[in-house]
Amino acid sequence: MELRVLRYFLAVAQEENITKAAALLHVTQPTLSRQLMQLEEELGTKLFLRRQYRVTLTDAGRLLQRRAQEIVELADKTRQELGSTEELAGEIAIGCGETRSMTFLSRHICSFRQLHPQVQFRIYSANADDVKERIENGLLDMGLLTEPVDIARYAFIRLPEKDRWGVLVPKDSPLAKKEAVEPRDLAGIPLLLSGREKVRSELAGWFSDTFDHLHIAATYNLILNAANMVKNGVGVALCFELENISDALQFVPLSPRLEAGTVLAWKKDKPFPPVTEQFLRHIRGIG
User: Which residues partner with 191 through β-bridges?
Assistant: First the structure.
């Protein structure tokens, strides 16, 4: 499979129309159709369902779309890293969970770009499991990961600030009037929980014997949509304390207090381009 053909495939999958994709790619429609048929022959499977005015992906096509996006993204990243320039330049890709430590990272990104304005950062927002998968696949250089998380295979810097657990509730909720929420206060209340198993295990320890009797309305991986569900009455969300989520919502901390640390992690012994090495030195305060 050639990168050029994978880009053709992705364009058609995006547009769902060969004529439109051919115009965007500046190739003729017969040329594009031939390339797609050759790709299907090479892979030995049908990638598209062809209708009169529209093409859609088969199950095999959807799988290839995910893989092709990763391959093309990795190729572009590699090309950028290997480009030579006298001034420090390039892209640093960081996966970030929702954590107060993002402020620490943002300030260091800002100060680093003041020194090296040709450097760009690509931030990918996801939970720790998703970020680790993309680090393993070479799509991210490092990740801002909230604990609990398995980092045995990673080098890391432990960041100074901790995240405090609590519940996000509507401001007119009786829970909003409390200084802190105890496990018994959440009995029978619809809850929105993180979908990560490690996090659920951590919360199970806080709830103790009542965890198996919780009323779980939904799970989530990032808080923005969970906050929307809280505003619209689906339930209350167990989450970290974050700023500027919504003026209509109130964060109430848990009691007993429950906190989580954060690490900036990357694969051990991975060779980094100079721009990424320099950024890590900057984070550590030695460059």
Answer: 216, 236
SS (H, E, C) the chain: CCHHHHHHHHHHHHHCCHHHHHHHHCCCHHHHHHHHHHHHHHHCCCCEEECCCCEEECHHHHHHHHHHHHHHHHHHHHHHHHCCCCCCCEEEEEEECCCCHHHHHHHHHHHHHHHCCCEEEEEEECCHHHHHHHHHCCCCCEEEEECCCCCCCEEEEECCCCEEEEEEEECCCHHHHCCCECHHHHCCCCEEEECCHHHHHHHHHHHHHHHHHCCEEEEECCHHHHHHHHHCCCCEEEEECCCCCCCCEEEEEECCCCEECEEEEEECCCCCCHHHHHHHHHHHCCC
What span, in angstroms and rounded, lies between the C-alpha atoms of 221 and 96? 12
CA 233 to the chain's CA centroid: 26
Count how many residues are written for the chain.
287
pTM of the model: 0.71
- Beta bridge partners of residue 250, listed in sequence order: 169
Which strand ranges, in their side-by-side order, compose the sheet holding 154-158? 119-125, 90-96, 142-146, 262-267, 154-158
Q: Is 194 within 8 Å of 127 (Cβ atoms)?
A: yes
| pLDDT tens, residue by residue, 56-104 | 999 999 999 988 888 888 887 777 666 645 678 899 999 999 999 999 9
State which amino acid sits at residue 241.
E
Which residue from 179, 149, 155, 161 is spatially nearest to 276, judged by alpha carbons?
A: 155
228-256 residues labelled b (16+ CB within 10 A) or e (exposed): ebbeeeebbbbbbebeebeeebbbbbbee
CA distances to 67, 98, 143 from 255, in Å: 44, 21, 29
User: Cα separations (Å) of 137 from 74, 133, 186, 208, 252?
Assistant: 9, 6, 40, 37, 38
